[in-house]
Amino acid sequence: MSTQSPRSPRAESSARPAAQGAPRGSWHRGRWMLLLLAAVCAAPIVVSYLTYYVIKPAGGKTNYGALIDPQRPIPDALAVTDENGKTVPLASLRGKWLMVTVDHSACDDACATKLYFMRQVRATQGAERERVLTVWLRTDAGAVPDAIARAYPDTRKFAADPAAIAAWLPADAGTSDADHIYLVDPNGNLMMLFPKNPDPSKIKSDVTRLLKWSSIG
After folding, report:
1. What is the CATH number of domain 64-213?
2. Binding residues
């Protein structure tokens, strides 16, 4: 008849931590999985901004437009009136990349040139152009010339308070908001300011790069 020697108290105490450690390890693994999932979801936005704010080639910057820092979100109180007389918040356009220009409704040659540049930059994005909206913020409620309305049917035309626009949109020294084209990201943050009398091919390069690196919008 065989007998088993009783386990010592020391052996029993040394076995307990191993048994108790399994749930703790599972909890840690679960936490790391959640963190990894959050990182994957945030990656597209992070990459798009790192492309401009951090990653720069040797000897120069990557962007043509001036980056807006700190960000300027579309003010919740900034209301605009569309061509049908309906007043809506400009922030309702969030979800798309916005190319924005500011000018009076009569639209002189400089105004028409900006509208033309925005239309062409958008058109050259190919299948990605649906991610971009061109927006004209008119500083008065006057009538848009028929020739302009026919030439730019896809440009969203809104009447807005010029003081409210100026409070949101910055301008280079010696210029006004009417001298620039602006880029707003799909989260509603003003991202770029392009210079007066810009080079449209360089605007195109900036927009193409952003659409390539970012899946938002």
Report:
1. 3.40.30.10
2. 107, 111
